[in-house]
Amino acid sequence: MPDVPDDTFAPSPAFGEGTVWADRTGRRELVGRNQRGVEIPIGHGEGRISPGELLKLALIGCAGMSADFTISRRLGDDFPMRLLAHGTSAEESNRYEEIDEEIQLDLSGLDEAGQERLRRLILQAIGVGCTVERTLVADPEIRHGIVDVPARGRVAMPEPSDATEGERA
């Protein structure tokens, strides 16, 4: 798995720490990559994750990582945790109007006051430490750059599907 993009395009002068990239592999199909060699198939087909699902995973992944230390101080280093994100994009606005996060923990070792204190501390840790949530809440400016760069090949296309050009991601 590559830690830098292949030579299909000339290297981007903006490539650096924090850069991720996605290469088109077919109609509405991509493979997302990071500099540590991780690959994520993106799309709507079997074995792929949609961009909206990636957004929700980023949100709960960040929440879990932000709260991990706080939780481990109260429940021990070996605590089990599951995070879920619920929500679908609204048809009319083509955006997520709301996403509900759920953090599942075994709190049976804490009394009621301890459970409530931990809940407050978890929310505080996420509010301070979760870059993804802080970014989404702040309504970030996103700039799109379209760069003309000669490519060294074409993408082998699978059989046509019923997907239309204007479909949502």
Measured between the Cα atoms of the first and last residue, the distance is 25 Å
Count of DSSP-assigned helices: 3
pLDDT under 50 segments (min length 5)? none
Structural class: alpha+beta
State the shape. elongated
What is the total tally of β strands? 5
Helix content: 25-40%
The overall average pLDDT, rounded, is 91
Strand order of the largest sheet: 1-2-3
Q: What is the C-alpha radius of gyration, as a whole number of Å?
A: 20 Å
Strand and helix order: EEEHEEHH
What kind of oligomer do you see?
single chain
Sheet having the most strands: 3 strands, antiparallel
Strand-residue proportion: 15-25%
Structure description:
The model has no long low-confidence stretch (mean pLDDT 91). It is elongated, with a radius of gyration of 20 Å. 30% of the residues lie in helices and 16% in strands. It has a three-stranded antiparallel sheet, with no helix packed on it. By secondary structure, the protein is α+β, with helices and mostly antiparallel strands.
In a nutshell, what does this entry contain?
The protein is an alpha+beta fold and 169 residues long.
What labels describe this entry?
169 residues; alpha+beta; three-stranded antiparallel β-sheet; 5 strands; 16% strand; elongated
Write the layout of secondary structure elements.
Blueprint (H helix, E strand, L loop, with lengths): L20 E6 L2 E5 L5 E4 L8 H25 L5 E6 L13 E6 L6 H18 L1 H7 L32
Antiparallel strand pairs: 1-2, 2-3, 4-5
Helix pairs in contact: 1-2
